[in-house]
Amino acid sequence: MERLRTELRVQGWLRRAQAQGLMATVMRKGDADAGALFLKLNRFQAGCEVFAGAAAPDGTPAWLKATGSTPVPEKDADGYLARQAGYDPDLWVVEIEDPRGQFVFDEPVIKV
Fold it and tell me: Cα 33 to the chain's mean position, in Å?
């Protein structure tokens, strides 16, 4: 099975956020074909959550809550993403502004 280009996945996430009435921005542009994708949900006063693209046990697309089970301050989320970019300069980061906590994923979020 052929993998979808990361650039196309990013465009899809921007449209999905827009359809939910949310502002989304590409904060870091990576490799168009195979860069890792991270979503940063910025809930402002309630903190931020960072999700990393992953695969469910059956191989379908899923997300991993990369910054833990509870929201973190924005500086901590940004620090995490900066460290990841140090390991993988090809990664993408999409930030979704979600002050009311209304964003929902279509794919499962894997608990660790």
Answer: 17
Is the CB of residue 36 less than 8 Å from the CB of residue 53? Answer: yes
Q: What is the pTM of this model?
A: 0.91
Residue with the bigger pLDDT between 112 and 67: it is: 67
Residue-wise over 35-72: b if at least 16 C-beta within 10 A, else e?
A: bbbbbbbbbeeebbbbbbbbeeeeeebbbebbbeeebb
The CA-to-CA distance between both ends of the chain, in Å, stands at: 27
Range of the domain at 90: 6-110
The CATH number of the domain where 10 resides is what?
3.40.1530.20
Give the model's pLDDT for residue 1: 45
Is the CB of residue 55 less than 8 Å from the CB of residue 108? no
- Provide the token pair at 37: 């994708």
